[in-house]
């Protein structure tokens, strides 16, 4: 990037690099900076002498002369999620020992990921370079549950340690470099799971950095560069194709190019292809992401309170999920599956050359669209991307987009809406989300709502009424998918960012898990 508006260039900051080790040792024998024990409300039960009944807590507290029980009582620590208490100890193997609340029952990936994040926060606060984590009650866990718990804890620790300080003039590098996971087993299978956690986390961090980057830095061209870097880094399994506006014109992508027309930054249509390093390909998949690096709304400009125009750099969150998954899969290298990563990247701006309300655009499958709202532009870009994906000969497509405010109204800020006419695909993706801990909810594809999308002068309009807006948007996308292809649309407008307006990397872990399920 030789020049950006405002002369802003992100600093190059290395993502967290934590060495994880699985150990079966007595927790009281561990030596290091910080020992964190994950406890449920039930784990804190006391006997008649106010001593812990839980064997691990009893053993630790005995070594610490009752200080742990005393501190947890004084600080009213009850094991609820979000609670923690830490002691600075002299003359003990670990400099700090603490309890972190897991809630009533820790059984979900989200709970264990939260534990990992809390450990990272404690390590940052104490400037710890090494830590150990243990669950107060791990005896009842099955072998599979131990693997998934270790994966979630490790993911949480890496993501909790990560801070995107690339746009700050000064930042400190976190000290944490190693974490021992005690009591969840050991051996090659667990080591493989911990490596997998690192691979997925690196993809999530990449996705977060893309979404957090402002539109004056992350233009469509820079997004294409970043995607190409993924392909070149893992060139043993990836190839990349970047189409310019003229090449898109040859493919008759009038819907996508209509959106891109007003911007001084030219569009870039991005296609990465993953092929396994060896063996046959049993299934072909496509991941399609919405890639609006900035959305002004066009002539239907975003105005007034709540329009969130200042957060419209997030409108490429779908593309970040797609490329974050690509980065993770480049490291994992699953066999038996070919994956296409497709993004029609552009900006939705205003100029004398731009698309006007009332214009009719023609998509690459020949269907015509009356643009009754230039701020419903994401679906116009996805239309041509979905046609292109079907032309790659794939059997299944998942598209992800920050598509509608209606979906946020329906499901709130942390749940993505899922739309698909295919029950088998819904089952696959929702099961993958259960493993990843991301929240998805299947929504209806009510065909009768398509009536509101019919145009008097073209095949369709690009927006219907306000009611059921997320459903009518999904029905619009369905018009550009081959009937023989299984297809799912994920509306992630809510969970793309958190309450601090920072990127979450939503969707990446679920996509990776889904691809691996298809690979196996």
From TrEMBL:
<dbReference type="InterPro" id="IPR000819">
    <property type="entry name" value="Peptidase_M17_C"/>
</dbReference>
<dbReference type="InterPro" id="IPR008283">
    <property type="entry name" value="Peptidase_M17_N"/>
</dbReference>
<dbReference type="Pfam" id="PF00883">
    <property type="entry name" value="Peptidase_M17"/>
</dbReference>
<dbReference type="GO" id="GO:0070006">
    <property type="term" value="F:metalloaminopeptidase activity"/>
</dbReference>
<comment type="subunit">
    <text>Homohexamer (dimer of homotrimers).</text>
</comment>
<feature type="domain" description="Cytosol aminopeptidase">
    <location>
        <begin position="373"/>
        <end position="380"/>
    </location>
</feature>
<dbReference type="Pfam" id="PF02789">
    <property type="entry name" value="Peptidase_M17_N"/>
</dbReference>
<keyword id="KW-0645">Protease</keyword>
<dbReference type="GO" id="GO:0006508">
    <property type="term" value="P:proteolysis"/>
</dbReference>
<comment type="similarity">
    <text>Belongs to the peptidase M17 family.</text>
</comment>
<keyword id="KW-0378">Hydrolase</keyword>
<dbReference type="GO" id="GO:0030145">
    <property type="term" value="F:manganese ion binding"/>
</dbReference>
<protein>
    <submittedName>
        <fullName>Putative aminopeptidase</fullName>
    </submittedName>
</protein>
<keyword id="KW-0479">Metal-binding</keyword>
<dbReference type="InterPro" id="IPR023042">
    <property type="entry name" value="Peptidase_M17_leu_NH2_pept"/>
</dbReference>
<keyword id="KW-0031">Aminopeptidase</keyword>
<dbReference type="InterPro" id="IPR011356">
    <property type="entry name" value="Leucine_aapep/pepB"/>
</dbReference>
<dbReference type="GO" id="GO:0005737">
    <property type="term" value="C:cytoplasm"/>
</dbReference>
<dbReference type="InterPro" id="IPR043472">
    <property type="entry name" value="Macro_dom-like"/>
</dbReference>
């Amino acid at each position: 990037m030789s020049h950006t508006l405002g002369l802003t260039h992100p600093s190059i900051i290395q993502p967290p690099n934590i060495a994880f080790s699985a150990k079966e040792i007595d927790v009281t024998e561990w030596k290091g900076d910080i020992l964190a024990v994950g406890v449920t409300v039930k784990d804190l039960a006391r006997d008649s002498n106010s001593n812990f009944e839980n064997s691990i807590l009893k053993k630790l507290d005995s070594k610490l002369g009752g200080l742990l029980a005393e501190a947890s009582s004084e600080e009213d620590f009850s094991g609820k999620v979000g609670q923690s208490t830490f002691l600075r100890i002299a003359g003990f193997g670990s400099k700090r020992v603490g309890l972190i609340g897991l809630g009533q029952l820790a059984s979900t990936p989200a709970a264990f990921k939260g534990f990992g994040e809390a450990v990272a926060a404690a390590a940052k606060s104490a400037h710890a370079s090494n830590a150990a984590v243990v669950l107060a009650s791990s005896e009842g866990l099955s072998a599979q549950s131990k693997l998934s718990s270790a994966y979630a804890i490790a993911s949480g620790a890496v993501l909790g340690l990560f801070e995107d300080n690339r746009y700050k003039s000064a930042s400190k590098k976190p000290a944490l470099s190693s974490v021992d996971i005690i009591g969840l087993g050991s051996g090659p299978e667990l080591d493989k799971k911990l490596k997998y956690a690192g691979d997925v986390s690196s993809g999530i961090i990449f996705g977060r950095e893309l979404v957090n980057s402002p539109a004056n830095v992350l233009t469509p061209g820079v997004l294409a560069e970043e995607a190409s870097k993924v392909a070149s880094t893992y060139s043993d399994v990836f190839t990349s194709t970047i189409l310019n506006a003229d090449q898109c014109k040859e493919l008759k992508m009038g819907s996508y190019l209509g959106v891109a027309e007003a911007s001084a930054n030219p569009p870039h249509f991005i296609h990465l292809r993953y092929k396994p390093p060896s063996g046959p390909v049993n299934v072909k998949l496509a991941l399609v992401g919405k890639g609006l690096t900035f959305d002004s709304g066009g002539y239907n400009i975003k105005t007034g309170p709540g329009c969130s125009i200042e957060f419209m750099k997030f409108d490429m969150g779908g593309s970040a999920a797609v490329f974050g998954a690509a980065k993770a899969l480049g490291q994992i290298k699953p066999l038996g599956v070919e994956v296409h990563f497709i993004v029609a990247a552009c900006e939705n701006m205003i100029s004398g050359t731009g698309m006007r309300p009332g214009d009719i655009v023609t998509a690459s499958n020949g269907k015509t669209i009356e643009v009754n709202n230039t701020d419903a532009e994401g679906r116009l870009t996805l239309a041509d991307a979905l046609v292109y994906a079907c032309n790659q000969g794939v059997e299944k497509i998942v598209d992800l987009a920050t598509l509608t405010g209606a979906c946020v109204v329906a499901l709130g800020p942390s749940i993505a809406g899922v739309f698909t006419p295919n029950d088998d695909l819904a089952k696959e993706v929702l099961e993958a989300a259960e493993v990843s801990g991301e929240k998805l909810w299947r929504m209806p594809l009510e065909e009768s709502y398509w009536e509101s999308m019919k145009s008097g002068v073209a095949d369709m309009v690009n927006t219907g009424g306000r009611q059921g807006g997320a459903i009518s948007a999904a029905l619009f996308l369905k018009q550009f998918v081959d009937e023989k292809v299984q297809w799912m649309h994920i509306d992630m407008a809510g969970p793309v960012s958190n309450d601090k307006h920072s990127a979450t990397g939503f969707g990446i872990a679920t996509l990776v898990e889904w691809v691996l399920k298809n690979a196996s």
